[in-house]
From TrEMBL:
InterPro entries from the UniProt entry: KR_dom, NAD(P)-bd_dom_sf, Sc_DH/Rdtase_CS, SDR_fam
Residues in Ketoreductase domain copies: 6-180
SMART domains: PKS_KR (SM00822)
Family indicated by similarity: Belongs to the short-chain dehydrogenases/reductases (SDR) family.
Disulfide bond as UniProt keyword: no
Source species of the chain: Pontibacter fetidus
UniProt name for this protein: SDR family oxidoreductase
CDD domains: SDR_c
Keyword set, alphabetical order: Oxidoreductase
Amino acid sequence: MKLNNANILITGGTLGIGFATADLLIKNGANVAITGRDEKRTHKAAHTLGALPITADVADIGDIRHTFRTFTQEFGKLDALINNAGIGIYKPLDELTPEDFEQVYRVNVIGAAMMASEAAKIFKKQNYGNIINIGSTAATKGYEGGSVYASSKAALRSMTQSWQAELRKHNVRVMLINPSEVTTAFGNQNREERHAQPNKLRGQEIAWAIKSALEMDNRGFIPELTVWATNPF
């Protein structure tokens, strides 16, 4: 697809991968809306980027509907949804609670699915569209303390494959990007960005992967793309 004048919706766009992706896509001519749960932070990020701010929580179905109403009122057509919003909880197995799973799955699994569901309604009518899900290398290999987060990303990976099978006949491309560790605010209680490290990925590398996947001619798509740091040691 051509990015110039494309209308793109990014969840969790106030920091990290979402912010870097919005920045890169806007610089390449796209019209971008970002969502975030914190109104002040969302509006500040959108002002910096030149994006449309939408204060919304993907774990809330009412907020999801509000997001799509606001987006379509502003832009009309939707070309791409980037499911970036995500949270994590990391605990040993013997300390886990049902609430840990519920909290993370509401965002990483159910929220992503309901955002994609609303986008699919638009895309099927258009007979065209793009969904990019931001997964994780944890989706393909669990790790100590990763029962909740890794399993949520494995579920997102499985849903991506299901949506690919369902939506290809409607000319909808569904793609999964799996980053390894990225130095963002993800996992920080204070939601402050971590300092970049030369041996770790930044949001910019994942933004580049997203941009590249979107820019492939519409006749083809990349079902799944994993991005590693070259030498993380």
